[in-house]
Amino acid sequence: MPRTKTVKKTTSSKSAGRAAQSLPASSPVKVALLGFGTVGSSVAKVLATMKYSGLELTHIYNRDVERKRASTAAKVVPPTVQWTENIQDVLRSDVDIVVELMGGLDPAEGWLRKVLSSGKSVVTANKQLIAYRGAKLARVARQNHAQLLYGAAVAGGVPVIPGTQQGLGGDRITRLSGIVNGTCNYILSRMESGADYAEALADAQKLGYAEANPSSDVDGYDARAKLVILSRIALHAEIDPDEVSTQSISSISAIDFAYARELNCTIRQISRAQVEGSTVRARVAPMLVPKTSPMAWSHGTQNMVVTSGEFGGDVVFSGHGAGGHPTAVAVVSDILAVAQRCHAVELPVRRRTVTSEVVAPHYLRFVVHDQPGIIMGIAGALARVGINIDSILQHAGHPKNRLPFVVTVEPCLNTTLEKALRAIAKMDFILEKPVSLQILAPDEKDE
Amino acid sequence: MPRTKTVKKTTSSKSAGRAAQSLPASSPVKVALLGFGTVGSSVAKVLATMKYSGLELTHIYNRDVERKRASTAAKVVPPTVQWTENIQDVLRSDVDIVVELMGGLDPAEGWLRKVLSSGKSVVTANKQLIAYRGAKLARVARQNHAQLLYGAAVAGGVPVIPGTQQGLGGDRITRLSGIVNGTCNYILSRMESGADYAEALADAQKLGYAEANPSSDVDGYDARAKLVILSRIALHAEIDPDEVSTQSISSISAIDFAYARELNCTIRQISRAQVEGSTVRARVAPMLVPKTSPMAWSHGTQNMVVTSGEFGGDVVFSGHGAGGHPTAVAVVSDILAVAQRCHAVELPVRRRTVTSEVVAPHYLRFVVHDQPGIIMGIAGALARVGINIDSILQHAGHPKNRLPFVVTVEPCLNTTLEKALRAIAKMDFILEKPVSLQILAPDEKDE
After folding, report:
1. What are the start-end ranges of the H helices in B81-196?
2. Per-residue pLDDT for B16 more than 50?
3. Residue A286: in which H helix or E strand, if any?
4. Closest-approach residue (CA) in chain B for A141
5. Which of B100, B122, B149 is at the close of a domain?
6. Would you please indicate which residues of B are annotated as catalytic (active-site) residues?
7. Do residues B70 and B190 share a domain?
């Protein structure tokens, strides 16, 4: 029982202090990697470079494993490692820690359940699995005195999860806002610099930031999984990913950045969750972000998370949210934590219902066929649901038969606004589905 | 032996998982506060508000304790707490955790040594003590199976220490740069907005950010202590605070901000440490920071730390670095970690020598009595030591008999530059000691 051995090492009264420094070389903590792709090979590279005493990479599982074994990335892997495409070789082994880097719910869930049930600990970067099944897997881990760590599942190399768990347990965090999808941030930053959506997406695909089917990123499902995980860690709220509404960035066009600039804003895919009583107000959507907000600092594939606490105020974490090496940093940090038997501060987590309703100012962009009565039509529809217009913006130089036209409205309930937009969408001068974006307040306070 | 009891709670095989959730109310972890000033009363407030199960505030020590006990801040303190001005009441008690918020080396060091020797754990916000004596106290803690946590000693409510320990152990951090003194950042931000030094300092004193004698803040000693602590945590380098050179911000004047703006920079007190072999390049000084650098984002009393890792790149932590409530968040987070027996990932720390030598571009500001030959004199002194001038800046509108005059130089060794500046300072047209500020590179990479 290797796990029991590990427990003894760090808690026997004689060696408690020393054990934490470096584990005795005579009984190394054994690590198996499931998946030898970009992150897996980076983890092997970091372990080979850092040479932590008392840690030993013993197994690498991958489908078509011989191809992986022959790759250049495999050169850093110690010759003693067992390469396998049979998961049973790992499940039946005496490894202490299984590092899962395959992604997806199946077969990862079943395998990790078996791993945890046998008392082995798990380190994973699998955000969908942790968002949907994290609470259940954590229960299995607890029942079997194993650890389940997933610092790499959110914001890659940015230590939001450990920083929040260990450093903000003394606060009551009421809101978190994040830029947690590097692909969207890359696309939107490129558009901020003048590219159009199709061009920016194509470049992201060429650079390996976006998949051939980019839906998971641009439509917000990737960010949503991360928001759900962060809500658990920071808000101590367990929420159902499927209840969190998402809005795609694919409807944003270059013209929106031009108008956003005029409002001293930029546009970012923002993931937000806010506790209100037993409800969590949560959504993932492209939003107008004031240039003075920390959220506007984040460029390219960078990630950023801002937690807002009752006592400590806003705390910002930012850095590289994706890529093999940054993600490997999070994975290896978690391996060290398991190996040194460092468990995280845990506070009670409660199941919460989700609402996507929000009262906020909004940016509305219409594409119209210019004709008399447009302002009256739009203003009328908004007035009928009690929404006040804040400003009307219209740049010169667009064709009359395809005119972008922007209205900003004072804080209103988004569901009420959507009702008005449905009415407006039916008006005969409207050529495209109107785009509606929440505008973040400069101090992010008055939502 | 209350500590042994705590060990059992989190490691006995039956209750390991549950214990981490909330400690059993039947055997609360007892907490004593040393110091009931701004931070101490905020800690009491947070504990009273959050009502963590299994934690009990049992003692408050302060000189002239009756005055504290009668204060409004004391109203949140449970009636069961023993208020005392006799430290023996705490030392001889059965408390599990002593929270030290008095500051200074003496008597804190002796008392905490006794606390740790008796197997009680310590949570402290005392940066000078931890910078100068942290390694020794940690040894005493280890020998007695106690914990010593000091997340509040650096950057208040910003979880740089736990985030780095738990989340970046998998990286090799080679450099850290920080804005870790809120008073200096407040003064310099005010000057950026047009205030002069004396006015900004007076305001900082009025607001309680700066002491009557502001030397510890403005001359860099406070930041230096924090830099030494961060070097231990992030660079795994133990360095002597007295070996780290400091440069005061008191020589910065409004005119420097005007010229900095022209160079698309601002001025911040920066604390930097960089590992090079067995040496750490470390200093605390006001520096020119490009407006595009994360360091320029930090305004007012905000703190910011950027770690640069070989694998994960730059990670930014920022937030409120001072004040009762944010500091209390760090203190209470550490209390929870001790109570739940969460120890930090520890990696070997090595004693390192310090150098303050740096090769970097510099900003030089002279105040001269205008006369022929000034540029020749200054350029000649720089040329004699092999330093190239990058630009010469001179704004109109200053009196000829007291003319500020700025030169920027290409990357050069600071000690060589100082030699040239000593020669220049003796020239008859020089009216004030020249000001020399390192210029940070936009990407912070080419130092």
Report:
1. 88-91, 108-117, 127-143, 160-167, 182-192
2. no
3. strand A279-290
4. B17
5. B149
6. 226
7. no
